[in-house]
Amino acid sequence: MRQTNFSYLLVALLIFLVAVPLADDFVLGSPPVAKAFLFSAILIIGVVSLKGAGSAFLVGVIFVVSGVVFSILAAQLHSAFFQFGSLFALIGFLLVAIAHTMKQVALGSEISVNRLVGAVCVYLLLGVIWGVAYSVLELAVPGSFAGFDAWKDRGWDSEWLYFSFVTMTTLGYGDLLPISATARTLAYLQAVFGQFYIAVLVAGLVSAYISHRQRAAQSD
Question: How many Cβ atoms from other residues are within 10 Å of residue 9's Cβ?
Answer without folding.
Answer: 26
